[in-house]
């Protein structure tokens, strides 16, 4: 039964923690607003004519971006001449709304000289706290997976498709990913890895420009252009998925062995 008394301090902190974990971390007003009671605004102008088939076909195929300006992101990213510069530019960039709710930028971890790059999806709560990718539970599993094939963070470079934690650990939206993509492309160009491993579906779909599912694509090598850099790339399952579905570790293990063979074949180990 609901208690009709004010919350005490500990209860209020618990409610705020719960809100934060659910991604509700900005107060937008003092009072709740009943949106159902608000009338839909009257349209003052006639709706624009539907595009002709030819106009629709001529539209750029780019994902529409709400809020930020992708051409600004592209020119900012292109201006970075080093990873340090890119990190500074990204830290000052306000075009992607994810930044508003994140504690800090999660740029990269590992060795910027490495020839092997891993790309995950987005920082989680622990990454957001520490400012480094893959330092939570899935990061610990990733370290064990790397260790099993003789790699560690001194031999790989790790980044994410978006460098800020999405509220409540939701998957970044296509618009958020599209805004961050020029920065990831530049990061890959500057690291210039010979081999890239993507972790999980969203990172795979971003890097391989595909809508195919991870289960179908994982474990298959292809030569992929990432920005102006081309690398041999393989998708595998995300460590967070493996924590939830331990039976799938068998498939991930095959992908790790395949990575090991590729690394040896290219003389990178
Ligand atoms: N999951 C990711 O995809 N990236 C991280 O940095 C942490 C968890």
Automatic annotation (TrEMBL):
One Pfam family here: UDG
Region described as Disordered: spans on this chain: 35-72
GO biological process, one term: DNA repair
Entry EC no(s): 3.2.2.27
Cited SMART domains: UDG, UreE_C
Keywords per UniProt: 4Fe-4S, DNA damage, DNA repair, Hydrolase, Iron, Iron-sulfur, Metal-binding
Record field: catalytic activity: Hydrolyzes single-stranded DNA or mismatched double-stranded DNA and polynucleotides, releasing free uracil
InterPro entries given in the database record: UDG_Type-4/5, Ura-DNA_glyco_family4, Uracil-DNA_glycosylase-like, Uracil-DNA_glycosylase-like_sf
Family: Belongs to the uracil-DNA glycosylase (UDG) superfamily. Type 4 (UDGa) family.
Protein name: Type-4 uracil-DNA glycosylase
Source organism: Devosia ginsengisoli
